[in-house]
Amino acid sequence: MTQGKINVAVVTGGGHGIGRALCRRLVGVAATVVVADIDASAASTVASGIGGVARALDVSDEQAIAELVAGIEDEFGPIDLFISNAGVGFGDGESGAISAEGGMNPIDDRWQASWQVNVMAHVYAARALVPRMLNRGGGQLVNSASAAGLLSQIGDAAYSTTKHAAVGFAESLAIDYGDDGIQVSVVCPQAVATRMIGIEDDSDSMEGGFGGNEVDGIMTAEDVADIIVEQALAGKFLILTHAPVTTYVQRKATDHDRWISGMRRLRQKVLDR
Ligand SMILES: NC(=O)c1ccc[n+]([C@@H]2O[C@H](COP(=O)([O-])OP(=O)(O)OC[C@H]3O[C@@H](n4cnc5c(N)ncnc54)[C@H](O)[C@@H]3O)[C@@H](O)[C@H]2O)c1
């Protein structure tokens, strides 16, 4: 992608939350913004509000991603920017981290669902797009992970584990294809006021969620989207939207055992609330 000349941008999970804010932020940045979401009606609403294109998409389905990429490129031209933003988190629930039952949602195995949406969707998008981008000399992939992918989400082992995997996959992509013109970014926010932490779209509330979200404050999806787009277009790999994360990552790297003790204390505080 030539910076500043984005033809087509695709945002998965564009119907709600951070994805919706990203789609709105990309107006005027990309000639065509594609809002892709498993919630087809939310995708349509967002797309019609921004003059974009709506597509129903389940990112856990590799064939669906391949068909979306091929169909969009046939109709609108090369996808310069693909933001794999869709993600899920279920919480460990009362049964704890190792049970097979879903936490908050009626999903039998939250581990598999988290793996598919939080990790394999990024792999499927890369499989569909990297060969095309290599052929045309470049492109940009932005993968949404989480600060939980560098640190941990208290009370959600599957989320923490799969977000670590998402960071690892983005690192591999950046290392393998960076020299061939593919710009990769990975996004690692802390708490953002969206449905994922129990805050409905367009709600004025900034309180919600589980696992100590309130500790460092909750950002709006709009503020987070501004940072993501600005830093991704500037070619940054690691996008940290919340200032304290840099310090936490440094502390963890310096003394992992001490970091685990600190996280146990934080967990206790959360349980005592
Ligand atoms: N909200 C936070 O505090 C926070 C913090 C760090 C990282 N993130 C990450 O940011 C990303 C966006 O999350 P959000 O906070 O906007 O959550 P959200 O729940 O508000 O939005 C997620 C969107 O993804 C869509 N989606 C879910 N499963 C899908 C699937 N299989 N296929 C296609 N679309 C699907 C949903 O319909 C929804 O529109 C996620 O990857 C999330 O893990 C969120």
Task: Write down the overall geometry.
Answer: globular
Poorly predicted regions are 102-106
Radius of gyration: 18 Å
Q: How many strands?
A: 7
Helix content: 40-55%
Spatial order of the strands forming the largest sheet: 3-2-1-4-5-6-7
First-last Cα distance: 48 Å
The distinct ligands, each listed once, are: nicotinamide-adenine-dinucleotide
Largest sheet: 7 strands, parallel
Mean pLDDT: 92
Strand residue percentage? 5-15%
What is the H-and-E element order?
EHEHEHEHEHEHEHH
How many helical elements?
A: 8
Q: Tell me the structural class.
A: alpha/beta
Q: If you had to describe this structure to a student in words, what would you say it looks like?
A:
- This protein has 273 residues and is an alpha/beta fold.
- It contains eight helices and seven strands; from the N terminus they run βαβαβαβαβαβαβαα.
- The protein has helices at 17-25, 40-50, 62-76, 110-136, 157-177, 221-233, 244-254, 256-272; strands spanning 6-12, 30-37, 53-56, 79-84, 139-144, 182-187, 238-239.
- The chain has a seven-stranded parallel sheet with strand order 3-2-1-4-5-6-7, sandwiched between helices.
- Helix 1 (17-25) links the parallel strand 1 and strand 2 (30-37).
- The chain is globular and about 55 Å long.
- The N and C termini lie far apart (48 Å).
- Residues 102-106 have low confidence and may be disordered.
- Nicotinamide-adenine-dinucleotide is lined by residues 12-13, 15-19, 37-39, 42, 57-60, 85-89, 117, 144, 146, 189, 191-192, 194-197.
List the helices and strands and how they pair.
Elements: E1 6-12, H1 17-25, E2 30-37, H2 40-50, E3 53-56, H3 62-76, E4 79-84, H4 110-136, E5 139-144, H5 157-177, E6 182-187, H6 221-233, E7 238-239, H7 244-254, H8 256-272
Helix pairs in contact: 1-6, 3-4, 4-5, 7-8
Bound molecules: nicotinamide-adenine-dinucleotide (NAD).
